Amino acid sequence: MSFKENFLWGGAIAANQAEGAYNVGGKGLSVADLKTVGGNGKERMFTPTIEEGVYYPSHNAIRFYDNYKEDIALFAEMGFKVLRTSINWSRIFPQGDEELPNEEGLKFYDNVIDELLAHGIEPLITLSHFEIPVGLMEKYNGFADRRTIDFYVNYATTVFERYKEKVKYWITFNELNFGTMSHGELTVLGIHPHGKYPLHKMPNDEKTRFQALHHTFIASAKAVIAGHKINPEFKIGCMIAHLSMYPLTPAPADVLQCKEYDLLVNKFVGDVQVKGEYPPLIKRYFESKGIEIQMEAGDLELLKSGVVDMYKFSYYMTLCVTTQNGAEASMGNLMGGAKNPYLESSEWGWQVDPTGLTFTLLDLYDRYQVPLMVVENGLGADDKVEENGAIHDDYRIEYMRKHVLAMKEAVEKGVDLIGYTMWGPIDLISAGTGEMKKRYGFIYVDMNNDGTGSLKRSKKDSFDWYKKVIASNGEEL
């Protein structure tokens, strides 16, 4: 067995990391627009307002807003079957709670989607990719207020109606399971921190956070129901940042803690969105923490009726879990763990584990038995440009090759995998730090961490490699 004939090869970007034009065309501020640049020992900050003299990377990003035709042409040259991107909520509803949308914002996405389709590329649209309007944060404390559910559904319904004949694949929320963690309040749920904070040190209010997470579950379910009414052919998925975990040692305490973390961080949100119900062990966790989720009549029925059609997830690395003190640490996608002595690490300390992707695919398909799609996977590296302009990124090719082989192994074992959109096919600003130095792309963008540079696009060696992978449907690696 190999990849399906209609396997969706492509790449993934996000509006706040690519578009720029943060105050153009009637767009309002999103939470991403209040995040400063970090890196080189400096923490990325959230500021309640835009501060003079401070660099905010999302304000210009890589100017996909102006360069989308050139960028999409490059994606098409690689043979993309699909591009995952997001609609910036505050470009459609600038404050988030308006009744009518901003037509100029919709026209921009008309143009992007039409350009994709003209090149034979399927759009995969994320409705909320860390881009909650600041107006909703300031007026309603984001999803902590149940009224935000209806604002989200109005937004989702608006774009579903607009693109019902053009877009088949959708995601309701990006990496929603970050809402289970103490740094997810702002980015995922739009909860106001009421002050200036480093992104990884937000105020931790578990009761508010899990209540807000419940509201996003209801919002997602309502959007799925509305979407299927608008077009029954829609394929709407969740999106989980799958933080695959191993116990550091065979010590029973390590094994038990690993299981408990996996349930809370990964399986909880997946179960609600795919199975339509809160898992029993999470209910017990809430009881132990004194957390009582306030539900309205009909909420549980909505969760059952609004389950997603497929499970989409990001995969970058694996983590180790231990109860032991003094274990060497490793970094990760917004969550670190203990260092695995059997794995190598990227420049940013993320441990590289292709076998873990096979493990994750088998684990997820066994649990959910719905189509799966890997919608983020890639290697962030500090690429060097040679004097002749060449960028030799053999390390990225090797990373990608091993992960494609890992997916192929899972398919051979019976996993229903429908697509792969690597992150990100063109260099973007980092979600974690706002840097440009941490590059993922097959396409190099001439821009520095401070935003200076020509923004010229150029191909890395990996560009032609991925082109061959797609043309051979994953056989020529």
UniProtKB/TrEMBL annotation:
GO CC terms: cytosol
Transmembrane segments: none
Keywords in alphabetical order: Glycosidase, Hydrolase
PROSITE patterns attached to this UniProt entry: GLYCOSYL_HYDROL_F1_2 (PS00653)
UniProt keyword annotation of Hydrolase present: yes
InterPro entries for this protein: GH, GH_1_N_CS, Glyco_hydro_1
Any single biological process term in GO: carbohydrate catabolic process
UniProt key word Nucleotide-binding: no
GO function term, MF aspect, one: beta-glucosidase activity
Listed SUPFAM superfamilies: (Trans)glycosidases
Family membership: Belongs to the glycosyl hydrolase 1 family.
PANTHER family named in the record: 6-PHOSPHO-BETA-GLUCOSIDASE (PTHR10353:SF296), GLYCOSYL HYDROLASE (PTHR10353)
Identification of the protein by name: 6-phospho-beta-glucosidase
Native organism: Pilibacter termitis
